[in-house]
Specification:
alpha+beta, Fructose-1,6-Bisphosphatase, Chain A, domain 1, D-Maltodextrin-Binding Protein, domain 2, 2 domains, 23% strand, globular
Length: 261
């Protein structure tokens, strides 16, 4: 697919940052298994990737605003456009040597996400979409799954850790959902969870307490692959609430009914 100039800028930046992260990822297994040492190393890898992304994206579009996990937000001369970036989604996986993490880049225009890229360097999978132009994985068109029965479907979510306050609600979600479906997965990267729904690998996904950079790129990719996306609480805005539920059209209503209780 030949994308717009902006989409090509995003893909090029993701690949460049991906090369840096893959190099660092190879070093993770050589680290002493010490939380401080390994954690500090991963933080440096994360920051280095963000510097690369910022340099590439701001150099190509110097007037656009910026919002990223590590560097925070910056207004641009153009108030209508903003990059929303997560240089390393799945940091805990990266830290433990698990090859399931991604770079996420979204372009927001007038408050709407109009393009998104999620790059999994370890598997060389580039998920991307532009509003109105469909969703793609490398050279293949993406489409959400065609399953129409909950009992045949698998879902993804994030499980709260470290005593987070949303753990009870998530456990209640699981208690309602698991008897009604074929399984639930927790792979540790919200961006890739969304990309996998777009690719039909998961039939649906939901999660709480997310940040805009976790979600933004995946929202447009799922929608352009034919999926439905909504907030967990009807009427709320997804990026500001940090809560999302998505699935193929056939099961969305039933899935949302189960999760929303």
């Amino acid at each position: 697919m030949l994308g717009s100039a902006n989409l090509n800028i995003m893909i090029r930046a993701a690949r460049k940052a991906g090369r840096s992260l893959v190099k660092d990822f190879r070093e993770v297994e050589n680290l002493q298994v010490s939380m401080k040492g390994a954690g500090d190393f991963v933080s440096r890898a994360d920051l280095a990737a963000e510097r690369i992304l910022k340099q590439e994206l701001r150099e190509a579009r110097p007037t656009y605003g910026w919002l990223a996990e590590e560097g925070g937000g910056e207004d641009g001369e153009d108030p209508t456009r903003r990059w929303i970036v997560d240089p390393l989604d799945g940091t805990t996986n990266f830290l433990h040597g698990l090859p399931h993490w991604a770079i996420s880049i979204a372009l927001e225009h007038k408050g709407k996400i109009v393009a998104g890229v999620i790059f999994d360097p370890a598997k060389d999978e580039m998920f991307f979409a532009e509003k109105g132009e469909g969703a793609w994985l490398n050279d293949s068109r993406l489409r959400v799954s065609g399953r129409s029965k909950m009992i045949e479907s698998i879902f993804a979510t994030g499980l709260p850790f470290g005593g987070r306050s949303d753990l009870p609600a998530t456990l209640q979600d699981l208690a309602r959902l698991m008897p009604a479906c074929a399984g639930v997965r927790r792979w540790g990267s919200a961006a890739l969870d969304l990309a996998y729904v777009a690719a039909g690998r998961y039939d649906g996904y939901w999660e709480r307490r997310l940040n805009p950079w976790d979600l933004a790129a995946g929202l447009v990719i799922v929608r352009e692959a034919g999926g439905l996306v909504g907030p967990l609480t009807e009427g709320e805005e997804i990026l500001s609430s940090g809560e999302v539920i998505c699935a193929n059209e056939a099961i969305f209503d039933r899935f949302a009914q189960v999760i929303r209780g």
